[in-house]
Amino acid sequence: MQTTSISNILQKFIPENTKITVHGWIRTLRHSKAKISFLDLYDGSCLKTLQIVIGENLHNYKSEILHLTSGCSVTICGKIVKSIGNKQDIELVATNVTILGWIDQPNTYPITPKKHSLEYLRNVAHLRSRTHIFGAISRIRHILFQSMHNFMHKKGLLWIPTPIITAADTEGNSKMFYLSENFNNKNISNNISTNQVNGEQFFFGKKAFLTVSGQLNLETYACALSKVYTFGPTFRAEHSDTNRHLSEFWMLEVEIAFSKLNDIIELAKAFLTNMIQIVLEQCTPDITYCSNHSQCNLFKRLENFLNNKIAYIEYTDAINLLISCNKNFKNTVFWGGDLFSEHEKYLSEEYFKSPVIIMNYPKNIKAFYMRLNDDNKTVASMDILVPGIGEIIGGSQREERLNILKERLLENNLSNKYYWWYQDLRRYGTVPHSGFGLGFERLLIYITGITNIKDAIPFPRVFKNINF
Amino acid sequence: MQTTSISNILQKFIPENTKITVHGWIRTLRHSKAKISFLDLYDGSCLKTLQIVIGENLHNYKSEILHLTSGCSVTICGKIVKSIGNKQDIELVATNVTILGWIDQPNTYPITPKKHSLEYLRNVAHLRSRTHIFGAISRIRHILFQSMHNFMHKKGLLWIPTPIITAADTEGNSKMFYLSENFNNKNISNNISTNQVNGEQFFFGKKAFLTVSGQLNLETYACALSKVYTFGPTFRAEHSDTNRHLSEFWMLEVEIAFSKLNDIIELAKAFLTNMIQIVLEQCTPDITYCSNHSQCNLFKRLENFLNNKIAYIEYTDAINLLISCNKNFKNTVFWGGDLFSEHEKYLSEEYFKSPVIIMNYPKNIKAFYMRLNDDNKTVASMDILVPGIGEIIGGSQREERLNILKERLLENNLSNKYYWWYQDLRRYGTVPHSGFGLGFERLLIYITGITNIKDAIPFPRVFKNINF
């Protein structure tokens, strides 16, 4: 007699009277007057529960069955039968019940069968995976993760583990976490207050930080193996606690040699399309659940993405459009300024009513490594915005010309001392190359309708909060 | 005319005279007296290079072709023809050559076509991916990575991103990296030298560290979704610079609810077997190259793994065996002591001459979360050793009994203040569960024959070294 997951039991045709063993936790239960108990069992393999029927004979044998509560863990041996009720096709009639784990003081158990608010569940993040909504998010996250790697593999990209600890103190405006040895407090104060920043005191011989992007390291591999990507955690030390920011999040970064801006836009579009198609095909019950939970019609959202044409607009044209649209924006629109969320919202949700790709931003608001266009004012960059979320992907062609890269480093006050190796890629066999980055939790928010990014990652790390 | 990767050109039957465009870098080149040039082109998609033939007509048109050197990047349009030479089946006769990037001062270019030592290449880690050996390692790493996720997906495990930043200051004996905000030096000294450790000074409100393992967080998801795994970077702040240690490395961790020690051993064996089979099938040229490079017969090593039975031995029996074998070990063998590398070597390489699984170690040398056996002296743990490497996988059944877990935390001086949530998993619907961990670079070393782990990760982070 084999152990079977509930997903397998419910998905596959199993002949009546097949003997089966399942393990799981009780979602809900009721005891009838006729000494028959009905348990709804979950094991995380799918959204649906399996109905277990425990008859009088077992009750007589094991009186503690009556003390079971929601959350208890059990092993059930039994036979599959057609269900009489219309809530499910099949059910498991128990021939043996083993109680594995009780709920200590059931009235204090934080997870009850009723719907809890997401705010409440954040305080019990170690138990929230037991709810329907976090089960659904976890399964969708897994399918996205798996499909992402399959997509990259099929397109011939190699996974490269870029470093998390870095000596680059910045490549833009992001605040970074600083790393030191786990000295006891006395040592920290002694070492640092003397202000001897001579390298000896540092574990790595110099200051070390947590990475904000693996791109520069990834480029070294793109300039040797052509098509590469990285997927790993990245970090921001911003003092912001909003529903859009995490201090630790996962990022996909793609880098393709011998490619230009348009090539990378096509790849990014194909990637998003593929992810959405697969989720719609493989995660229908979980998307349905998330749709109801978020009161956002996710099928409509995702099918709109697939069916609508994606709009393209130059940054300069976007600025003109925003200036002439007579909307009262909080933030002034001007050429050379960054686009704010309200501007992006207007473009994708009101004007185009579709995903939109904004291209060729001014060089002054973009990173030093983006390729300077012939106008000497803009760089070969792109952001993909989607309705309801805003920016989901950002990318650019990289500056492959050594002399211009050097100028851009100077303009940005970035030191040759660190970037010598990055310049070497342009010194030796340079090639045009381009890449994009995608915040994985952003994509998950778009697909699940979750509105707070803290619910898109199992254990969110944010300013002033590092529980669990 | 489509761009094609060299791997596709060489693997697929392409009719003669097909027009093709390829991009790549020159590995080697020679110019014949008859004004014909032969370039060996690589693009990272496979080990082999594509021979490009440039005839007199093109030379007359583009005199700079004669100045090309190893490492230059080019785009070649041309026609596929059968090769006259016997070194390759086909070659590309160029109809157009576009030079994309030169080598600045070719005599200073750190990567020449001759074989460089791995030690030398570590100093040019930003360029070493351009060599045969690092290309081979990168492609094998990718196939391992991809196959690992496919294996987990097929077995029904969900990927869970466990946190990198953690408030757990230790769960064992590993030294950890301490995290702070990127204050400027003045602020660091001011803040820390006052010794006000009241939480206000910390970004997260309390001390934060880089994780040494995602297991405890992963268990929360196993106790809800049954089968889960995590794959991410982990960190050690040990002051050791050996060929077996990294400060930052990638770890696979698996956690399965309703499973016992033997179940997890079977899963770990199936995993290793599957990884080795796939690499042997899909990476033959790269394994061949690594085999020659390392002067270790990797096919023999890997086929031995597949063909030999894996030996099982209890820790207690292993100790008795090591005591009675009359070997002069440097480290004394006694019951209750850890096994050293020399002991593991003897067991797997001399005594069993096969992989060996050692089970049920004394509780005092293992982590608090391992399940106490009925003898009250040992825990339900296992290490898998392979010849040539030593330990490659470590795992255990986890302590699911709240009262015993509490005792073990006490014995290890671990605070309830942090571990309350971990105990909750045993308080509410506890289940037997087990898991294992595998150092990804360790597996890569085993499969590629590389002897220094610094060559198994693109940008190694080790004590006193954080270049690139």
UniProtKB/TrEMBL annotation, chains A, B:
Q: Which residues form the Aminoacyl-transfer RNA synthetases class-II family profile domain?
A: 139-458
- For the keyword Heme, the answer is no
Q: Which InterPro entries match?
A: Aa-tRNA-synt_II, aa-tRNA-synth_II, aa-tRNA-synth_II/BPL/LPL, Asn-tRNA-ligase, Asp/Asn-tRNA-synth_IIb, NA-bd_OB-fold, NA-bd_OB_tRNA
Which Pfam families does the UniProt record give?
tRNA-synt_2, tRNA_anti-codon
The Swiss-Prot or TrEMBL record annotates one GO molecular function as: ATP binding
Spell out the subcellular localization from the entry.
Cytoplasm
Ordered alphabetically, the record's keywords are:
Aminoacyl-tRNA synthetase, ATP-binding, Cytoplasm, Ligase, Nucleotide-binding, Protein biosynthesis
* Catalytic reactions on record: tRNA(Asn) + L-asparagine + ATP = L-asparaginyl-tRNA(Asn) + AMP + diphosphate + H(+)
- PROSITE patterns (alphabetical): AA_TRNA_LIGASE_II (PS50862)
Cellular-component GO terms for this entry: cytoplasm
Q: What is its main location?
A: cytoplasm
Instruction: Give the EC number.
Output: 6.1.1.22
Q: Which GO terms describe its biological process?
A: asparaginyl-tRNA aminoacylation
UniProt lists the family membership as follows:
Belongs to the class-II aminoacyl-tRNA synthetase family.
Checking NCBIfam families in the record gives: asnS, PRK03932.1
Per UniProt, subunit arrangement is: Homodimer.
Q: What is this protein called?
A: Asparagine--tRNA ligase
Q: Which gene encodes it?
A: asnS
